[in-house]
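Consider the tokenized backbone below.
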């Protein structure tokens, strides 16, 4: 919702400062908008990373880019990799699967498209972002978390055998088919040759021959899970036809008319593209060329497969319309090389003809139940085979053993990690996702304190602990709740949900032990009817520039509003005034805390800087000055602490020390009547959150015990 304001700031401030700027004797080229990206929302700069980081003249621009990227307001990525999400034509109600999602730039685009209307806190659609690499999944979490969406789930599976998920539709279990699938497969990367020096050293024709089979398996698995009428985009950053047209042609051939290539020539006007090719040859590492499969000697038939060759039948070839694929060449628009194909599914795949059309009743037992209809396979080499009789017997026995436990946990709304017998767990062991029971006593004081609307979907609240005190409350959309509850045995979920409340024991004495979390405030705000204060732009500036300002510093209207309000967590809202066009023209919602004599905002540092920039406040500090001011502040703090300690007796000293230590290690501080200590504990928690850059990856207790780096993302 702040995109237009950021664009205005970029054009009017940062780009103007780059005009006539010289770095190392060279004139700086002005950033240009990408002609084919809608609404001028993508820009290209020729500044190298080295120049951006090292030049004092560009330090301000660099700080702006880094800070806004951490907030999730800007994403930096290769221009051509922005194309696939745009060609998916996403609407907010679409169920989307991103099959090979890490590091997450395209996933971020998809989330952004789901939230096209910011007035809808829970779009009906969702994004399930998958990656096979456990470590890269945490990078994916970090990227996705910047966008603060309750509609994203990160899972860890091999894309070529990603399981069929089930959802509950009016009491019936049905297979989940996706409206949109992004299939950005692993590739040789030869399209990145302009920026990736390694490609020149390591490239061989062998790379493509080894990847072709995997790419075809992933694409096949994708179209199997696509809903009829749905759209799948297949893309690679390679220009090799064996990774591109050969995969698409093979997929089209075995689909027997179930798939067709969409004509997207009218989409993204301004993007220079070349048509897909229909003729190519296959080459071995030693330089041998082959035009047809029959020419390949038998000792080479494991390296070269028939699906790598172009279709010989002219009529079949013509019907495939391979020229509808997009080839983006690096020298046309100063980009990387890229290949994109947009597929539309017209009917079920021939080997899935028995798949239910979303009406067949499936067994009501557990998520372990095999969905025979959707898994059936009539001889396709790229689909997992149907289980043998022996395997079926074994799975039935396992089913019976696990049934009672599973049913119990389902009733409790617990979505734990899958049993290790069913799936080997790699990487970190994840904490379970536990939905709050309807009668949980935890929720009543929260509902009362914030006067939550009766329509508030409390069933969508979850925590990551089954025992002990619940420290954080997260929220997912009801569609993702459905997916989580029905598939916990077959799916390894790394992360989902957005943090909406954090435990703050000092709040208990004021009526609610949970304070609002800034990450989830835009999702929660429409449901809150109490403890909201509308403030003017000057008050917002005070809240964002001062750590714990006294109430006397705020406007008389604000002072009047908070006078009769109980202490504790609250919402501070700024609404733009259309009659003052020079003021900030986008709404701001902040989490605040009212003390006895002060009012403060609980907002992460980069987000503070973002809002201040939007209001035209200069936030840039040269590195040296910043360090000096930090040292100065530290000295002042020490001096104040020393004075405070003189006034405290021994008992108070001990209690304060305990509060500080516990806040530092993430424990809750015991309730204390001294309001200032509550604020210090909260400060520490916020600072720790920032310094660790813990993007709510909900670090599990197990990973702490094994001594693995706690900050997973």
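A designed sequence for it:
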């Amino acid at each position: 919702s702040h995109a237009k304001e950021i664009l205005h700031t970029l054009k009017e401030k940062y780009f103007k400062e780059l005009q006539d700027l010289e770095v190392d004797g060279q004139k700086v080229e002005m950033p240009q908008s990408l002609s084919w990206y809608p609404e001028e929302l993508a820009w290209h700069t020729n500044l190298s990373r080295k120049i951006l980081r090292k030049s004092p003249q560009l330090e301000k621009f660099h700080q702006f880019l880094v800070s806004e990227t951490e907030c999730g307001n800007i994403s930096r990525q290769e221009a051509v990799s922005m194309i696939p999400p745009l060609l998916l034509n996403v609407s907010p109600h679409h169920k989307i699967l991103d099959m090979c999602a890490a590091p997450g730039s395209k996933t971020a685009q998809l989330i952004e498209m789901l939230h096209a209307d910011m007035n809808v806190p829970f779009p009906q659609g969702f994004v399930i972002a998958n990656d096979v690499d456990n470590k890269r999944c945490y990078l994916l979490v970090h990227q996705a978390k910047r966008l603060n969406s309750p509609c994203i789930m990160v899972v860890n599976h091999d894309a070529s055998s990603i399981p069929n998920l089930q959802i509950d539709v009016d009491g019936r279990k049905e297979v989940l088919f996706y409206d949109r699938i992004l299939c950005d497969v692993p590739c040789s990367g030869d399209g990145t040759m302009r920026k990736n020096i390694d490609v020149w050293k390591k490239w061989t024709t062998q790379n493509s021959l080894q990847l072709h089979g995997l790419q075809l398996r992933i694409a096949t698995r994708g179209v199997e899970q696509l809903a009829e009428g749905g759209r799948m985009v297949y893309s690679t950053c390679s220009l090799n036809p064996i990774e591109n047209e050969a995969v698409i042609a093979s997929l089209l051939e075995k689909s027997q008319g179930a798939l067709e290539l969409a004509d997207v020539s009218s989409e993204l006007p301004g993007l220079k593209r070349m048509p897909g090719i229909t003729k190519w040859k296959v080459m071995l590492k030693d330089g041998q060329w082959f035009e047809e499969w029959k020419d390949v000697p038998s000792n080479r038939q494991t390296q070269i497969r028939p699906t790598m060759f172009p279709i010989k039948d002219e009529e079949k070839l013509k019907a495939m319309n391979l020229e509808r694929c997009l080839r983006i060449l690096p020298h046309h628009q100063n980009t990387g090389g890229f290949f994109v194909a947009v597929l539309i599914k017209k009917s079920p795949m021939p080997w899935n003809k028995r798949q239910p059309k979303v009406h067949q009743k499936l067994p009501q037992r557990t998520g372990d139940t095999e969905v025979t209809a959707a898994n059936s396979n009539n001889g396709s080499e790229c689909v997992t085979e149907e289980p043998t009789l022996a395997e079926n017997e074994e799975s039935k026995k396992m089913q019976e053993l696990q049934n009672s436990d599973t049913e119990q946990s389902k009733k409790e709304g617990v979505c734990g990690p899958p049993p290790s017998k069913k799936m080997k767990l790699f990487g970190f062991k994840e904490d379970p996702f536990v939905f709050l029971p309807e009668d949980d006593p935890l929720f009543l004081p929260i509902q009362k304190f914030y006067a939550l609307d009766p329509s508030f979907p409390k069933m969508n609240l979850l925590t990551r602990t089954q025992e002990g005190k619940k420290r954080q409350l997260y929220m997912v959309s009801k569609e993702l709740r459905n997916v989580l509850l029905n598939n916990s045995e077959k799916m390894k979920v790394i992360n989902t949900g957005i943090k909406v409340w954090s435990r703050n024991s000092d709040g208990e004495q004021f009526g609610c032990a949970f304070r609002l979390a800034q990450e989830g405030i835009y999702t929660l705000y429409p449901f809150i009817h109490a403890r909201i204060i509308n403030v003017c732009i000057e008050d917002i500036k005070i809240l964002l520039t001062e750590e714990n300002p006294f109430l006397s510093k705020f406007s008389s209207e604000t002072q009047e509003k908070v006078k009769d309000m109980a202490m504790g967590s609250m919402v501070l809202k700024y609404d733009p005034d259309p009659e003052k066009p020079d003021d900030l023209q986008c709404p701001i919602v902040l989490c605040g805390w009212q003390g006895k004599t002060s009012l403060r905002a609980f907002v992460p540092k980069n987000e503070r800087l973002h809002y201040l920039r939007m209001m035209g406040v200069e936030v840039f500090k040269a590195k040296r000055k910043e360090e000096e001011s930090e040292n100065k502040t530290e000295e002042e703090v020490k001096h104040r602490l020393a004075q405070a300690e003189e006034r405290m007796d021994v008992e108070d000293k001990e209690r304060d020390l305990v509060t500080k230590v516990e806040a530092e290690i993430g424990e809750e501080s015991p309730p204390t009547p001294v309001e200032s200590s509550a604020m210090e504990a909260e400060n520490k928690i916020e600072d720790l959150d920032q310094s660790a850059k813990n993007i709510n990856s909900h670090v599990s207790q197990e990973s702490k015990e094994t001594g693995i780096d706690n900050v997973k993302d």
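The first helix runs from residue 3 to 18.
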